[in-house]
What does this fold into?
Amino acid sequence: MLAGGGTAGHIEPALALADALRRADPGAEVTCLGTERGLETRLVPLRGYPLELIPAVPLPRSVTPALLAVPGRLAGAVSAAAAVLDRTRAQVLVGFGGYVAAPAYLAARRRRVPIVVHEANPRPGLANKVGARFTSHVFTGHPDTRLPNGEYLGIPIRREIAELDRLALGDKARAHFGLRPGLPVLLVTGGSQGARSLNAAVSGAARWLRGAGVQVLHIVGPRNTADAPQAPCTAPGPAMGPVTGEPGGVPYVAVPYVDRMDLAYAAADFVLCRAGAMTCAELTAVGLPAAYVPLPIGNGEQRLNALPIVQRGGGMLVPNAELTPQWIRDALLPVLADTDQVANMSEAAASLGRGDADRWLAAAVIEIVEGAVASGGNSSHHGAARLS
It folds into this structure.
C-alpha cells in the first residue's frame, strides 16, 4: 500500500515508486491509498493503479473547536485504512505524508504490517513525524531532514525525467512546442495549478524577453489562461496550446498545462518556477538551472528546498514579493544572455541530482517484504510480492 495524497508533491513520488516496483517485479500488486480531497483521484487512475479512498482527517495546527472532532474522525479513517490492508493482504505500507498517511500508519501498526516512511521536505510533516516513530525504515528526500532513523535517499521521480537526455532531445522538443532551435528558451511553470504571481511577472516582461531574443514556454495553469500576454497577432501553435507573438518574431508559447514535462525540460535552457520538493528534484536530475520563487505561505520549506541548489551555484532565489517584470529584465535577462554562466549553472544543478531514488527505495521495500516473509512475519503469501 502506497499512502500519499493531497498534492502532487506527495503523489508523484508514490507513483514513481509504484512504477519502480512493477519494473523490479512485474507480478507485484500495488494499491494506492488516498482521500477524495486530493489530486490522487485524478493522477493515480491516469497512471493505471488502483486507488482506495478513506476519509480525510485534517489536523488543526492550533487549539480550536475543530480539534474536538479529530479523535472520532481519525478512528474512522484508521478503521477504513485497516480494512483496505485486510482486503488487499498488504505486506508493506509506504507512506509519503499528507492527510492519508497518518491513518495509514496507525492502521499498519494495528495490523503489524511493516511501515516505510519517505519524507520529501526539509521540515517533516506531522503525519511522517508520527510514522517515523513506528519504524526504523525512514528515508528522506533532503539531506537536512531530521527524523529518527532517517536516511538521505533523494526523491523518487519518473524514469522519463530521470533518464532524460536534454541535448539529444532538444531540437525535437522545441519543434513540438513551436519553438525555434537557435534561440535560448525560458520555461515558466508554477506547478500543476500555475502561479498567478509568476504569470504576471513574466507576461509583464514579455516585450523585454522577446527583445533580448529569449523564447518563452509558459505553462500558465489550467485556470489561468487569461494570464498569457496579449500579442498583436496570435498564430496557431501546437496542439498543446497557442503561440503568441509577432509573425517571424521570437516565440512566446503559452499553454494551460503540459503532460510531457520531459519535453518541456528538454526544450528549456533555464526555468522560472516555484521551489516545491518535486520541482527541485526533477530540475537537478536533468541539470536545469532555475530562478526559484518559493511559495510565500507555509513554513518556509520551499526556500529550504532550493537553498542547497542556489548555494552550489545551480540556481537563483527570489522572494515572491520581489518578482516583478523589472526583476526579470534587470536580474534574469543578463544571466540568460550569458551562455557560459548558464552552462556552469547547469553543471552545478546536475551535481546535486539523484535520479535513482525510485530504484533504491523499491529495492528497500522489496527487501523488507522478503525479510518479513522469511521470518514468518505479517504475511504467509509466497511467490510474487503483493505490494499493495
